[in-house]
Amino acid sequence: MNSSETAPTTKKSLHRQLYVQVLFAIVLGAVVGMAFPGFATTPGVEALGAGFIKLIKMVIAPIIFCTVSTGIAHIQDARKVGRVGVKALVYFEVVSTFALAIGLIVGNVVQPGAGFGGHADAAAVAKFSHTHLSTVDFLLNIIPDSVVGAFARGDILQVLLFSILMGFAMMAMGERSASLRRLIDDIAHAVFGIIGIIMKAAPLGAFGAMAFTVGKYGPTVLGSLFGLIATFYFTSALFIFLVLGLIARATGFSILKFLFYIKDELLIVLGTSSSESALPQLMAKLENLGCSRSVVGLVVPTGYSFNLDGTNIYMTLATLFIAQALNIPLDLKQQLVIVGVAMLTSKGASGVTGAGFITLAATLAAVDPRLLPGMAIVFSIDKFMSENRALTNIIGNGVATVVISAWEGELDRDRLKAALSGPADLEQILAEAENKEFAD
């Protein structure tokens, strides 16, 4: 970056930084939730958090369509798209396996549910038993009944499929698609502007989400479940700093500097418990970091459905916790089955708040139906678990994009070094991404 690009960041007051405002809102929300639970659980406060998430989800499908389709269309070599996709899927599966394995190891060593000794009411969770889908059903669900329906429902996998097909179609058209590419680029330019407006409401959304959660559940509800929460956070930190840290180091950057670089997105995710709430900003920041737009456009949206490290850790830990709490021993073979089943069922959890909980139900039903009643045990604290799932997922997808860019030879290492060495201003980066879309 030149001096003109960094000047707005250095002159900006600390209290005007988005991450500072979001952090303050999270702390204030927690205090209000504990001190005034009645007020914190009113529909108005709940609407602040829920409304912000809906605003973000409103632009997810358009931004994925614009980014993926034009990203592919701008690539003249179709083989590159397939090459990047294969590399991404290989990386996702390898790292996801590490996440599942770490969850199993820590769950067996710590055994957070060993002293629980409770039994859940099967009727309380029977409604979750229908969530298991066969592999064929899952693959068929990726194909939308209609393109309009996929966008209306915000189904990321279906929108992604259509975006890839549109990108290849425009690529095949060559120069005849130039006007269509410009139109989609203009739409992306406008969507980035919408995101910039929405992000100004991030502190309100974070406050509402945190206040409602603390006010509704309260600190005492954790009780004996605190051990599971602490174990989950510890395991996720171990995965981030050990596994992702080693991967980042091998790629040539520091995981700590990377986390500081995306701190705005992490705090937004922490407040909203949804990794999708920061997807557009993450994509813009990764491009600013030196990753090519085509790699970002392919890897990030795909990673939100196929690279859910936090969800994988959660499923193995929660499954072992429930088995220990219900005194249902699982041998090595059954635990390996958990890994295999979770590898498939996790693909349907797209980073939306609570998706990991439904995915857990599908995994339990496939591994051992006797475990399903245990869903009632972890239901009350799923909100707290969801925050960590979302944080780990977004970090994993960010690291994956940098790694795939480096693997593909499309990582500007000078830009990477410069971006990680100084503060990152989200509004500045969104403005640059907006101008880049317009210029292209």
Question: What is the compact description of this entry?
Answer:
This protein is an all-alpha fold and 440 residues long. The chain has helices at 3-11, 18-35, 37-40, 43-73, 78-110, 122-125, 135-142, 147-153, 156-173, 178-199, 202-217, 226-251, 255-261, 263-272, 279-288, 293-306, 309-325, 332-345, 355-367, 375-379, 382-408, 413-421, 426-439.
Provide structural commentary:
- This protein has 440 residues and is mostly helical.
- It has one domain (3-439): Orthogonal Bundle (Proton glutamate symport protein), CATH 1.10.3860.10.
- 76% of the residues lie in helices and 0% in strands.
- It has 23 helices and no strands.
- It is globular, with a radius of gyration of 22 Å.
- Mean pLDDT is 76; it is low at 1-11, 117-133 and 348-354.
Q: SSE order in H/E notation?
A: HHHHHHHHHHHHHHHHHHHHHHH
Number of domains: 1
> Which class best fits the helix and strand makeup?
mainly alpha
CATH class: Mainly Alpha
N- to C-terminal distance: 19 Å
Q: From the 3D coordinates, which CATH architecture would you assign?
A: Orthogonal Bundle
The overall pLDDT average reads: 76
Percent strand equals under 5%
* CATH H level, superfamily name: Sodium:dicarboxylate symporter
- Which fold name fills CATH's third level, the topology? Proton glutamate symport protein
Question: Could you give the count of β-strands?
Answer: 0
Helix content: over 70%
The general outline is: globular
Low-confidence stretches: 1-11, 117-133, 348-354
Largest sheet: none
The gyration radius over C-alpha positions equals: 22 Å
